[in-house]
Amino acid sequence: MQTAPVSYGSDQSGMVCGYLFGRAADGKGLPLDTDAACQWLRQRAQHPTEFIWLHYNLANTASEKWLHEHTTLPDEFYESLHEGPRSTRIELIDNTLIAVVNDVVHDFTFEPSDISTLWLSVDEQIVISARRKPLRAVDSLRNAVRNGEPIRSSVELLTHLLRDQADALIKIVRDAITTVDSIEDNLLAGKLTTKRASLGALRRVLVRLQRLLAPEPAALFRLLQKPPAWMAEIDVQELRQSTEEFSMVLADMASLQERIKLIQEEIAALSSEANNHSLFVLTVVTVLALPINIIAGLLGMNVGGIPLAQSEHGFLVVVVIVASFTVIAGWLAFRRQRDVS
């Protein structure tokens, strides 16, 4: 057996990596290449205490062809490969677990396009996983297996993957909380440096994450109530525990979305208050300029009989009249503003 190269690419069959697990290796994964995987699949009946994990890159068009030729996966698995985005789900079909797990890519930057899908088929001896983009959770699982972490069964491999996905989601939530805390601190300090649109984009990504990553409760409930005969009781318990941990993470994400909503409302209120203040200042300026414009318009008429035209102190009298009207108008405007406040 040859060690499969460590990369995000794939070989000619589309396989990214393959591992063999069994009692002989104390549950540790032994690397497989494509030829060794084909040989084991042909002789699987001779190794009832072993199981393999084969991980494929669907961006390589040879992947589906190889799987059709060398495995007997349910048709539902191939149909799910061509479905649109759906929530994370685990279903029992023909005594095989079919899982659709949404995860984030390695360079996740809070963009909706950074979420992709991993498809799995799990039975007692064969675990097949396939993806189109490198994902955090599956590569975390791959690193754990490569570093010698023992895996007891195929279901434990699936459970490990779900926990790695939850860990990746926890990190995303923590980063989002740090961002929201910084925005909230600036808001409390009176520094409105963040726009509502930025918070709206963050909130939309969290909503999308919650919608896609939250396991479908109906399918999962049916599985946990009636697991396949080959699934050990300890595997059922660990799967139930991992889903409960995942639910706690999703609850934290929901509370974070509510915080973002409240901050958006506070920013909207502050923006509205600032706009109202600007409108008030503009109104006051207009009111203060009104007496000047009226008197200037009257005295600027080219007609006879303009008062104070021949007076030595006419200009001073007009200035005093204009200043008096301006002071009275300003006093009335500001008194009304204080009454409203």
TrEMBL record:
Gene3D superfamilies: CorA soluble domain-like, Magnesium transport protein CorA, transmembrane region. The chain crosses the membrane at residues 279-301, 313-334. Belongs to the CorA metal ion transporter (MIT) (TC 1.A.35) family. It is a multi-pass membrane protein. One of its GO terms (molecular function) is magnesium ion transmembrane transporter activity. It comes from the Bacteria. This is Zinc transporter. GO terms for cellular component: plasma membrane. Signal peptide: none annotated. CDD domains: ZntB_u1. The keyword Calcium does not apply. Keywords: Cell inner membrane, Cell membrane, Ion transport, Membrane, Transmembrane, Transmembrane helix, Transport, Zinc. It is found in: Cell membrane. Coiled coil: none annotated. The keyword Nucleotide-binding does not apply.
